[in-house]
Specification:
Radius of gyration: 24 Å
Largest sheet: 2 strands, antiparallel
Distance between the termini: 22 Å
Structural class: mainly alpha
Strand order of the largest sheet: 1-2
């Protein structure tokens, strides 16, 4: 048995399609890291300084404001990174469907 797809040698050549979608997926992932980093920095600034962005926080309000930055940064990261992965998932589903279609067409064409 050869490697690849069901003993068909190395399998069909896969042409990369949807380059713009791939770029968008990468941009979503990069933006996720950037915004998460900015949120973490703002959270640390809010946590450590007595006066943040012109607002004087008293007592536990500093901690609550910092917690807001950390949670919003984490949620932003999860959703943006997930959006990038979601785009890649659909691209991979299309590629796998196309490969399966090519293999089945070859199999049906060779048996008749």
């Amino acid at each position: 048995m050869g490697g690849g797809y069901g003993g068909y040698g190395s399998g069909p050549q896969v042409t990369q399609r949807y380059k713009a979608l791939r770029v968008m997926a990468v941009l979503y992932k990069v933006l996720a890291f950037i915004l998460a980093g900015i949120s973490a920095i703002l959270g640390l600034i809010t946590l450590t300084s007595p006066r943040t962005f012109g607002i004087a926080y008293y007592g536990g309000a500093n901690v609550l404001a910092a917690l807001f930055w950390f949670i919003s940064g984490a949620l932003t990261f999860v959703f943006l990174f997930g959006a990038g992965e979601f785009i890649l998932l659909f691209i991979n589903i299309e590629e796998n469907t196309r490969i399966t279609n090519e293999i089945l067409q070859r199999r049906n064409g060779s048996s008749s």
